[in-house]
Fold this sequence. Notes:
54% of the residues lie in helices and 0% in strands. It has 83 residues and is mostly helical. It has a domain at 30-83. It is elongated. The two termini are 28 Å apart.
Amino acid sequence: MCVVLPCRNTLLRSRTTQRPSQRLQANQCLEPTVEKDIALLIAMEVDFLLRLEELKKDLHSLPGFNICHLYKAIAQPNNQGID
């Protein structure tokens, strides 16, 4: 399994990269602390995505909101995408 670590959270990055690692067999379980940290990380990600959806709904409900105008405002000139 691969996990992408956020660059801005140096504490999380250092704790994760300095933790001793070991290979597990298919029938072995992770250490409880590792399992707990993964579960917390997934829960934080779900909470973030739910909040993001709420913010998108709020944005769409604003009078005069137009997704095309928003895209043009943040897209780079002479570029076909948002960078």
